[in-house]
Amino acid sequence: MEKHEPTRRAVLLWGGAAGLAVTFGVAQPARAVSGAAAVPAGVEVDDSADIPLQPGLIGYNMHITNRAYHFTDDAYRALIARLQPRWGRWSAGTANNVFDPRTGTMPEERRAQMFDKRNQYYLYDWERRVNAGKNDGYMDLVRYYDSLRETCAALTMVVNTFTGTPAEAADLARFCADNHILVDYWELQNEPYLFTGGASALPKFYNSATDYLNKVKPFHDAIRGVDPDAKTVIAYTPTGGNAWDDRIYQITAPWWDAIVWHTYEAGSRETGNWLAAAFRDRIGDDYLARSRLSPTPILQNELDVRVAGPLYNTQYNAVFNAEAVMRLTTAPKENTRMLTGAGGIPLWILDAAQDHTDKTLDALELGTTIDSGALDHQLYFKTVGVANVIVNEAVNNSAARWQTTVTGGATVAARDGAGSALDVPALFATGYRGGFGGNMKNYALMTNKSAEEHVIDFRVGGATLNTQVTAVYSASADPDAGNTADNPARISQQSVTYPDGSAVTIPPYSVVRLEWARSGSPAAPRTPRITSAEVTGATSVRLKWWNSPNATSYTIHYGTTPGVYTQTRTASSAAGTTVTGLAAGGTYHFAVTATGAGGNSGHSNEVGVTTQAPPTPTNAVAVGRRAGTVTVTWRSVPLATGYVVRYGTSTSALTQTLQAGNRMGADIDGLTAGTRYHFTVEAFNGAGSSAPSAAVSAMPVLNLPYTPVRLRLSTPDTAASAALTWDPSLVRTFRDYFEDGDAAGWTVASGTWSVTDHPDPARATKVYAATSATGLSETVNGDAAWASVSIDAQIAVTSFTANGTVSVLGRYTDSGNYYRFVYDHADQRFKLIRAVNGTFTTLAQIDLTDVGQPFYPVDVTNMRLVLEAVGDDLACYVNHLPVLTAQDSAHPTGAFALGANRQVASFDKVHVWTDNMTGTGGTYSLYRSTSPQSGYTRIASGLTSPQYTDTGITAGRTYYYRVSAVRDGVESLGNSNILTVVT
Questions:
Q1: Cα separations (Å) of 614 from 129, 143, 660, 683?
Q2: What is the CATH code for 58-396?
Q3: Is pLDDT above 70 for 840?
Q4: Which of 65-79, 490-504, 507-521, 586-600 has the lowest mean pLDDT?
Q5: Chain segment 747-790, per-residue pLDDT in tens
């Protein structure tokens, strides 16, 4: 038998060169050496003492806003089921999901309020999301909750506190109660600490953590007003130990129920130091030790340890991500309930080999619809996703972990949180007592961060495991190998079975799950949860519940008194069953138990249902919007499975109907601006329909003013005054898809241009093409008086010439005066150029290799360029990525243009947004309060410029401001961000 050293230090190599390359705290990997001897090591699991583990620890984020598929897609749900998630996160309050939860849509004026992410909220972006085949079910909470049923996933809800209101949050809580949607935690805004400013003159939603808590407390109160048992969550920062967290720790009487924090790239020292166990220590030494909650539930609901640089989405990245999950399970448990999300899905875990986004966007141009569910997206797991499948089974099916020790093995070089070099073991391992919910396996998870293959002696309870053990793993001798659309199964799950634990192989750069049979009798299945109870007829109710693993059947218990069940029915599947033979108009209370080899589970939540038509909806409100749209909202009612909106131009002739689905509101389009419409709402279920609500009326407003944005202090406040300023909202005033076959309104300034078929023969749309490969081609449109403006165009290039360029131009006066945002293929850079009387100055530039890497690489042959000019502030975006900014006052107004130089290029989906107050005689109104969500008094109106100095304040007080726009006597629907001023 070959002898081995007891330990071996692996020198990490990169690119084949000797030596160690360390990037921001994470060592670059070595390559496995072919034929090298395996390194011996020992793994000892102490199964004598259980350390409690939160059952069902790992879940996922529903983060699919930019894809042509969503959670109703069968293939998507099948892959999600393999992840076995036990948590789902509904993202109503993330930076790119500030939609109205009542309608499931995001009105343009609501997007305009998101000043820090304005580029993501233009109408085109929303059209891309909604019209990419997602109209049927996208943001449909009832259907999302039903998808969680399939994997026993509990729900955490992110509340939109940016553009939402406490009343809206109360409506959402009521809707959940009416539809038996159990929300385990209400998260009061996603990542609020990203929306602060360091200086008083900066725009901000939140000045500080204290300001954040003051502004979201009314949302907490509103939710609790509907559900007194609701649990709310406030946000800590990912790193801890900073001013934001310090202010939260100082609150002596916390009103929230849990905290949330995120983990991002391992490529930064702040979050990469978990290699030295600081990842675990931060929880115990900071969040738990200083928190005033006891116990302290912690939601780790964004976990994406993305190794920076070219290693993103590689096996090396997967090893780091898997170990992060494992280390979370070893976090202190004495005073916490740890929950986690395994990263955003599908942005980081799932992807599609066939991206049908172009196809669905083309359908939008052509005015047709497309069923995205009928498309074959060829979904696959990204490399991190393969590792998550391996890890999740062990963690989510275990009720305890066991102390686990690694001896021997290689070491790898890394850096600690302070940047100092250190060696860490290549192997990390932890054991788990399975058996939760009737599962009959025990587990150990292992990661190998080195290029060295290891052979381990796997010991449990002081002796080498003497029963059959199966290793399920993903591995790659090449650490930067990863799954791609071209090779979606390069890294896949594999398995090998060993007769015992005496010589188990741990491959290089691997995530390994060891599993072996549990002894003894199985436990009962997991207690189910009823997720829906629909009245399907005058004497019948349809129930659905969690699909509990290891359950062979389910028993429905019911009776006419709460908690007293006099009758039972049996069902074989959690897909649901219909209970018939009920009394018409009777009230019944239902609970469900699961049965398996280990016996019966406990009773589920109890749901009460009355076999009758639902009551009449109340609190109906109709609001007129732009472009022939009225939004109608209402308060949900129990028993409803859907709502119908009836409308017309006379209360006596509501001849048109809209099936709104099971929501709290609907946008009704295609109406005539300036015409008043009347609306009623009816609820229905299988037993019938309610009476109509009281009629409400509204008229679409052709030029509805939009809410101003970026309300801020222009100079630091004083004890006696606050100098305020703000920006106007931009609204879409122009778009051209060229599907009419002409370029009416465009003026060719140079070169040759024509409307032609898309260069990709698979696309059935038209484009506006610069057809000359020599010389400059520019075409102009728009109004020379436009001031604040944003120009957006999709640009396709079949192939670039050596020195070709493509660009969008703003504040264009003539061929020698403008701002140009250009991609220059000669030096592969994006540039922001100012032209004044033919003299050119580069205001800012960035290399292509620095844009979007490694997470959102840019394909310059098919990209979206945006040039925005608001006042003296210039900003440039590639796709959704902000890349260049500058300040310049050379050109205050101008039209816009498209350009190509020495390059054949196609332009499409051209959108332009301009100041919605330009040339309208519109004014602004300013409001002030001493409370963030109520009590606002108008202190100024008729303001014609976006600035005002408030001299009516006193020292030592806190004031809150918001501003609205007014045009033709109509005030904007929303308000700006709330600015906090502490004198």
A1: 33, 20, 16, 6
A2: 3.20.20.80
A3: yes
A4: 65-79
A5: 999 999 999 999 988 888 899 999 999 999 999 999 999 998 99
The answer to whether the CB of 454 falls within 8 A of the CB of 38 is yes
3-state DSSP of 26-46: EECCCCCCCCCCCEEEEEEEE
Calculate the CA dihedral of residues 495, 497, 501, 502 and round it to 10 degrees: -110
Q: At the fourth CATH level, which superfamily is domain 530-610?
A: Immunoglobulins (2.60.40.10)
CA distance 931 to 940: 18
3-state secondary structure 582-635: CCCCCEEEEEEEEEECCEECCCCCCEEEECCCCCCCEEEEEEECCCCCEEEEEE
Nearest to 192 by CA among 244, 232, 263, 230: 244
pLDDT above 90 (res 26): no
Contact status, residue 19 vs residue 13, Cβ threshold 8 Å: yes
Q: What band does 642 get if pLDDT is binned at 50, 70 and 90? A: very high
Side by side, the strands of the sheet bearing 776-781 are: 747-750, 776-781, 895-901, 805-814, 817-824, 829-836, 839-847
Rounded Cα gap, residues 913 and 709, in angstroms: 14
pLDDT for position 417: 58
Q: Which two tokens stand for residue 957?
A: 């007080």
pLDDT cut 70: percent of the chain above it: 86
Q: What is the pLDDT of residue 117?
A: 55
More confident residue, 161 or 204: 161
Name the residue with tokens 């100012």: 834
Average pLDDT over the chain, rounded to an integer: 86
CB atoms within 10 A of CB 124: 21
The two tokens of residue 850 are 């620095």
State the Cα–Cα distance between residues 720 and 520, nearest whole angstrom: 75
**What one-character DSSP code corresponds to residue 491?**
S
pLDDT at 308 over 60: no
d(CA 90, CA 268): 28
Q: What is the DSSP string of 289-355?
A: HH---SSEEEEEEEE----SGGGTTSHHHHHHHHHHHHHHHTS--TTEEEEEEEEEEETTSEEESS-
Structure-token match 């000359």, residue found? 772
Q: Do domains 7-47+424-517 and 58-396 have the same CATH topology?
A: no
Q: What is the CATH superfamily name and number for domain 709-728+919-982?
A: Immunoglobulins (2.60.40.10)
**Angstrom distance (rounded) from CA 37 to CA 923:** 78
* Tokens describing residue 555: 């028993």
State the burial class of residue 857 (Cβ atoms within 10 Å of its Cβ: 0-12, 13-18, 19+): exposed
The CATH number of the domain covering residues in 730-914: 2.60.120.560
Model's pTM, two decimal places? 0.91
In whole angstroms, give the CA distance from residue 328 to residue 271: 13
914-923: average pLDDT: 78
Residue 665, exposed/middle/buried by CB under 10 A (0-12, 13-18, 19+)?
buried
For residue range 856-874, what is the model confidence (pLDDT) as tens digits?
Answer: 789 999 999 999 998 899 9
Residue owning tokens 């000043």 = 115
Q: Rounded to the nearest 10 degrees, what angle do helices 209-226 and 166-178 cross at?
A: 40
CATH number for 618-698 (one of 1.20.1250.20, 2.60.120.40, 2.60.40.10, 2.30.30.100): it is 2.60.40.10
